[in-house]
Amino acid sequence: MIDLGISKLALIGVVALVVIGPEKLPRVARTVGALLGKAQRYVAEVKAEVNRTIELEELKRMKESVEKTAREVETQVSATAADFEREWSQVTAGLEGSAASPAPDYSADLAAIGSPVYPEYKRPKKNFRLKRQAVPQWYKARAGVRRHALSGAARVARYRPRTLSR
């Protein structure tokens, strides 16, 4: 890059003062400053766009890796489920043929437990529905409830009779 020190900037300024003249120098300096600002903004926008593109590519790669992992997990789970079903059917195959012992009756145990006890409902001490803030805004607007106080000038401007224009 170009190394611009104080001495080089002073030399450029003196040459510009001699070549352009003292009358036009401020206008030229403003124009050059504006062009440099536009160039810097353009470079910043290009950098931001490149960064967004890179981040988008990284997100796409992460999405693909997550989808690949999800597919692998899904195949493992389905294989495990198939193994479980096969083993379950082998274990329960011997139980289906022998119906000598009836299933135990747990209804007496459930009746002894009883129903659950819930705490008694207590009504709140304040009736919160009577507060003005509990009324919805759409209901206030429909019923014509004033929500804001109007100043005298605002009231005159709002309720002034309309005159017919000629």
From TrEMBL:
It holds the Pfam family TatA_B_E. The keyword NAD does not apply. One of its GO terms (biological process) is protein transport by the Tat complex. It is found in: Cell membrane; Membrane. Belongs to the TatB family. Part of the twin-arginine translocation (Tat) system that transports large folded proteins containing a characteristic twin-arginine motif in their signal peptide across membranes. Together with TatC, TatB is part of a receptor directly interacting with Tat signal peptides. TatB may form an oligomeric binding site that transiently accommodates folded Tat precursor proteins before their translocation. The Tat system comprises two distinct complexes: a TatABC complex, containing multiple copies of TatA, TatB and TatC subunits, and a separate TatA complex, containing only TatA subunits. Substrates initially bind to the TatABC complex, which probably triggers association of the separate TatA complex to form the active translocon. This is Sec-independent protein translocase protein TatB. It comes from Tepidimonas sediminis.
